[in-house]
Every structure is written in C-alpha cells, then in structure tokens.
Amino acid sequence: MSIDTMAETSASVPHKPMPSHLTFSGFFACFRGIVWREVLRFLHQRERFLSALVRPLVWLFIFAAGFRQVLGVSIIPPYQTYVLYETYVAPGLLGMILLFNAMQSSLSMVYDRETGAMRTLLVSPYPRWFLLFSKLIGGVSVALLQVYTFLAIAYFWEIQPDAAALPVGLTIGGQFVGFEIPAPYNGYITVLPAIILSGLMLGAFGLFLSSVIRQLENFAGVMNFVIFPMFFASSALYPLWRIRESSPLLYEICRFNPFTHAVELIRFAFYGQLDPTSFYVVAGCTILFLACAIYAYNPSKGLIARRGPGARS
Amino acid sequence: MLRRKMVDALTSQKGSSSTGEALRVRNVSHSFGDTRALNDVSLDVAPGSFTILLGLNGAGKSTLFSLITRLYDNTSGEIHILGNDVRRRPSAALQRLGVVFQSRTLDSDLTLLQNLTYHAALHGFGRRESKRRAHEALKTVGLDERAKEKVRNLSGGQARRVEIARSMLHDPGLLLLDEPTVGLDIDSRQSVISIVRRLVNEHGIGVLWATHLIDEIDKTDKIIVMHKGRVLYSGSVPGLLEAGQANDPASAFRNLTETTRAEAA
C-alpha cells in the first residue's frame, strides 16, 4: 500500500504509522475490546445482574419446591437414581438464564441500533461477521458469569453435579502424571462447553431476531412470542415422556424445539456425559442461526439494507 | 502532520487531484422500496476543507451518511474514502473514516477512558496504544482531566466533545458529523464548532458537517446544498449567494430550495 509505506519512511513522525491492513493482533485487540465492553457494561448494571440471578432462584426455591410433590420424576438418563424435582429442573434453569440473557442482549442490539451504538460498532474496519461474532462471545461471557453465580448458590440447595472423577494430565510410560478433579465437582467443568455452545446458539438466534425486530418494542413482546413458548415447550420443566402422555403433538413440538436440546446437552454435561443428538442439533442450529444473523446484517443483501433509515433519522 | 504527508503522498503518487479527495461521491442513487432517497448525488470533500452539507430534514443526509459508513451498500454509483472504494475495499475505507453520529453513542455507565479505549480496540489498537491515544484525543478537546469520570456526569456539549475525540482516535483522513450541534446551547455549539475547525486546520483532515443550521456557516467553507435527495448546489459561500440570488446564506438557501419546489409542482 503506497500511502502507508510513505508514512512509514517519514521517520520524524511521532505516531506509529496507521496499520495498512488488518493484522492478527488487531483482530485480537478488537475481539477483546468488544467482549470487555459487554462484560463491563453488565457489571455496571447492578439491577440487571440482580434480576438475572433472582429469576432462576425464584423458580428453584419456590416453584420447584411447590412442584416437588406434584411431579415425580422417574429414572431417566442421565440420572441413575430417583431425583428430586429441584435437581431435575436445575439444568432447565441454566437454559433459562442463557435464554433470557440472549434475548436481553438482542434487545439491547435493537436499542443500540436506534441510539447508534451498533453503528459505531459497524464502522469498525474489521469484517462484519467478525464484529457480530465477537459481540456474541461477549454475550456468552456475560451469561457464564450468571450461570456460575447461580450454580454457586444452588450448591447450597443441594444442586450438585454428579460425574465421574476427571483425570487431568498425561500418561507417560504407563505412569499417570497430573491430578484428578474429585468426583462430583468436575461436572462444573464438563458443563462449561455445553453452556458455551448453548449460549452461542441462543445468542445467534437473538442476534437474528434483533435484525428482524423493527423497533424497540417492549420486552413483553419478545417474552410472549419467543421466551415463553421456547421455555415451556421444552424439557426444561418436565421430562418429555410426561408431555407425550398428555399430548403427542406437543411432544413432537418439544422434540423439535432447539431449546430442548440445549437443556438436554447441559443436563448430560452436568453429569459428565455427552448426549450426541443434542450436541448435533445445538451445533447445527448455532451455525444456521449465525448464518442468518450475518446475512441479515450484510450491508448489500441484508434486512437492515432494505429497511432504510429508522424513524429517528 | 502525518495525515498531511499521507495525503500529499497519495496525491503526488497518483498524479491526479480527484483521487486525493478525502471523500468522493459519484452518481450515487439509493431507494428504499418505491421511495427514492438519493438521486444521482455527486460531491467531494477535499483534505483540509470544512464542507457543510446543508439540507432540511428528509433531504437525504442521513441516507448518504449510512452509505458512506457502510451501514448498507449503495446500489448505484461510487463512494471513495481517500481513494478506497467503500464497497470494494471496505476495511481500507473505514480505517480512514471518523464519524460522529447524530444520536448519543457513548456508554453512560462507563468512564470517558473506557469509552475511548473500546473504540480504539475496534480499530485494532492494543491496550497501551489505546490508552495513549485516548488521553491524547481527550487533551485536544480539553477533557483529559475528567478521563476517569463516568460519561453520565458530562453535559451534552462535553459528551459531544468526547465523541469528537473518539472519532479522531485512529487519525482518520475524513471526519463525518451528522448534525453534531443539535440540542446544544450556544456556548457548547461554539466550542464544538471551533474544535472541529481547529482539527481541519491543524491536522488537514477533510470534514463533512451535515446541518440544517445555517448560522454555522463560515465565509471560507465549502457548501453543498441537498434537497429531496438531490444536490442543488456545491461550491463556495459567495457562489451560493449568487446562485440563490440573495445577500445572506439563509435567503440563498431558501430561494434555491423553493425554486425546485416550484419546478416540481
């Protein structure tokens, strides 16, 4: 690039020359900047942190306690014994945290778009898919903070993982070098990839929604049409075989709900197991939703382009 | 300094003055459905010039800004930022572009410094470099001593100055400002305008300043009048008075836009 070589040769210039192309370290700086902003913003909004935490806890402490006597859960994988309803519902509540977080950040995206914060993001010289993906990871990081805080509190409510001991290390010459994470606690680690993947899927779905939603409607609309149907028509609150008993049609709907698979992926991972079907569905949906979102934000084809300037301009 | 040299280098190398423009818009039209927002718009912003884009609400200024910032692509015509086609080389073009949007875009819960370093990160600068640039930019708008304060505590005018500082962080060659003084009191307006004029003089950047406030015009500015998606006039202030057959810019602008209205009817 001619202009930059010219700039570099002028040695008296105090600044570093402007990067002539997007470097790898630049990509990393950009990524870190976006994620850092999301987390920082979340930590500064104490009410949001609190309500994000209180919501699943209310379900756990009150709803689950009341439901305990009504709904018996038989032995289904991954459980090896009868479990209390609280134990059954906990992975569903983790899914709920992810779902709410994804919808909240998608809504903030609509809000951002109206106030222009989204536009400041999109004038970055980095490729748009990369910016959106970084934003998504930022959302997942925020969700992880919420999930582990919830798990820490739920631990004292006897919601504890149950997974086989996890060896961390290498076997060298028949000799194991490393350490072992003791039996129940490694569930906290095995659940991590499941949380991240599910968070990505729901976040990508929210990102796509944010491009479709025309204006900053209130949260109730998203709640009625997205969050509630997704949450209730899933295996979060009751095992699917229970639903089949009452309505085969609903059972089929639940089976096709990607959120069901996110919950099951988390449930099995919490017990140190992998549920392959759920994994494939969640991974596939993540790719699909992400592709839709990136398409929607594409400057020449996407939905944003067709719409024109918002009401404010 | 650096910018000046780079622009000179570019101009001398290509040997033609047109590629040396900070912004070059050629025959751009854009429609949303049946509404034609922009109709064959061509305009230039020279490096080191303060160009005022004058137009009423709905003249197409915002659409033009969306196209230049690549919120969406222009369907016809070409837009070049310092010689880089916005569609073909978006990264190179956006690297040289600074924008101040009409609406407030700072995070009010975060500090000035956090806001600015976030923006520097969006341009790929590392942590230390981001901080250095943030402080430097805040100094030029006279707010460095408040770097650790939250944006929430700033007045409207101060927040605007921070946004100008932010748009300058990556040494852009072209600065776009979309109605930057709307909602500010007289003193704040004056300080925002004088800061941007100083940037033009000292750093040699090209500024495109969209407004409907005619009293922001200075005699030496270049004026572009837009109306209903078309460019009606482009040139100096004396030229505007002549074209509008008036003694002051306000009447000249009114005469120009009313003529087209009469023609259309």
TrEMBL record, chain A:
It comes from the Bacteria. InterPro entries: ABC2_TM, ABC2_TM_bact-type, T7SS_ABC-Transporter. The keyword Ribonucleoprotein does not apply. Pfam families: ABC2_membrane. Residues 47-300 form the ABC transmembrane type-2 domain. It is found in: Cell inner membrane; Membrane. Keywords: Cell membrane, Membrane, Transmembrane, Transmembrane helix, Transport. The keyword Repeat does not apply. Belongs to the ABC-2 integral membrane protein family. This is Transport permease protein. It comes from Filomicrobium insigne.
UniProtKB/TrEMBL annotation, chain B:
Keywords: ATP-binding, Nodulation, Nucleotide-binding, Transport. Belongs to the ABC transporter superfamily. SUPFAM superfamilies: P-loop containing nucleoside triphosphate hydrolases. Transmembrane segments: none annotated. InterPro entries: AAA+_ATPase, ABC_transporter-like_ATP-bd, ABC_transporter-like_CS, ABC_transporter_ATP-binding, ABC_transprt_ATP-bd_su_PQQ, P-loop_NTPase. Residues 10-20 have a biased composition (Polar residues). PANTHER family: ABC TRANSPORTER ATP-BINDING PROTEIN, ABC TRANSPORTER ATP-BINDING PROTEIN NATA. Residues 1-21 are annotated as: Disordered. Pfam families: ABC_tran. One of its GO terms (molecular function) is ATP binding. Residues 23-253 form the ABC transporter domain. It comes from Filomicrobium insigne. This is ABC-2 type transport system ATP-binding protein.
